[in-house]
Amino acid sequence: MQHEIKALGTDSASQPLKVLGIHRRALRADDIAMDILYCGICHSDLHQIKNDFGATTYPVVPGHEIVGRVTAVGAEVKQFKVGDYAAVGCIVDSCGECPACSRDLQQFCEVGTTLSFGTPDPISGGMTYGGFSQTYVCREKYTLKMPNFSDMAAAAPLLCAGITVYSPLKHWQAGAGKVVGILGIGGLGHVAIKIARAMGAHVVVFTTSQQKVDDAKRLGAHEAVLSTNNDQMAAFAGRVDIMIDTVSAKHNINQFLNILAIDGTLVLVGIPPEPLEIGAFNVVKGRRSFSGSNIGGIRETQEMLEFCAEHGITADIELINADQINQAFERLEKGDVKYRFVVDMKTLSA
Ligand code: NAP
Ligand code: ZN
């Protein structure tokens, strides 16, 4: 039997989030059910609430950096038991058979990836509702095991921010001898600094904020550049092998393509709603590449969690109560967060 739970969502782009009643499906044989403990606030949640991409279906309940505790398991579930920590990121289902799914790239499923929030729900009908809610029900195959992090709230942002930067850093072979630039130091960017450093790369931060230049070394960067300062930018000309671009709004990408090394790559992970213009000479010169990356598959997400646990990597978070969520979204919009909000979802029940 479906059951009704509380969630935080909104009916339109112009209204604040409020408490809504939503339904979770009855447990199936391969499902696990969890009480949600923590859910991080990603800029993609803000894009979705504001309908930045013109594709939001309301009411929307965002949230896709979910850590919970298992409360029930279906008859066929083998890897989880009641009481375990468990996590859900962006992906909760896919066809499992197409060429992308066969390569564990469920984010590119050719039939259609079911996201934890705001996509059609092939099992229950309607749209999926995300992690700003009391419970989640997910197929075991798409549920992540949480390694032994000392702070589970600070580990929650790894479920989206972590995998979104780990996957391209690995794909483009960040490591010893490589200079990795991290562009935009928000939720994704600050985790990218830590992961790139742990992979052995020389890490350079590019930020519009002097405060973040000052904070960059504490986060693990070797060097930091105020990107609005032309002299500081010029000092890096031809040096950056991999630039991870996490900027959420339209920006001058040519400035950053231009400082790539020969054969260097700029990987877009940020999703500015407007198109970006690229000057041809900024890529033909230096045989440079402009590329992109989208979250990561389930197997790679589990690998990333193990990597972060092993290297003691979590996010720097501000833990808030459910009734502070609208204030948090307003602050995220202004760039006023160091560096990720995480909602203590137990406070929604109180
Ligand atoms: P965030 O915490 O808001 O950080 C974004 C950062 O971008 C800001 O801290 C700021 O960095 C910089 N920035 C923002 N506006 C800017 C502007 N107008 N000009 C220059 N820099 C600007 O956001 P997030 O949660 O890290 O997410 C970042 C982006 O990644 C969003 O678009 C989100 O939707 C997207 N995303 C993509 C994926 C994927 O799979 N591809 C997954 C998750 C999120 P400084 O203050 O350092 O300049
Ligand atoms: Zn996200």
Describe the protein.
- By secondary structure, this protein is α/β, with parallel strands linked by helices.
- The strands form 4 sheets. Strands 3, 4, 5, 8, 9, 16 and 17 form a 7-stranded mixed β-sheet that branches. The protein has a 6-stranded parallel β-sheet with strand order 12-11-10-13-14-15, with helices on one face.
- It is globular.
- 49% of the residues are buried.
- Bound molecules: NADP nicotinamide-adenine-dinucleotide phosphate and zinc ion.
- The site of zinc ion (ZN) has 4 residues, from loops.
Structural class: alpha/beta
Query: End-to-end distance, in Å?
Result: 24 Å
- Major pleated sheet: 7 strands, mixed
- In helices, the fraction of residues equals 10-25%
The count of β-strands is: 17
CATH architectural grouping of the largest domain:
Alpha-Beta Complex
Global geometry: globular
What number of structural domains do the residues give? 2
The CATH homologous superfamily of the largest domain is named Medium-chain alcohol dehydrogenases, catalytic domain
What's the CATH first level of the largest domain?
A: Alpha Beta
What small molecules does this complex bind? NADP nicotinamide-adenine-dinucleotide phosphate, zinc ion
**Beta fraction:** 25-35%
The CATH topology label of the largest domain is Quinone Oxidoreductase, Chain A, domain 1
Computed CA radius of gyration, to the nearest angstrom: 20 Å
Q: Report the average pLDDT across residues.
A: 97
What oligomeric state best describes the polypeptide chains here?
single chain
SSE run: EEEHEEEHEEEHHEHEHEHEHEHEHEHEH
- Low-confidence stretches are none
The number of helical segments is 12
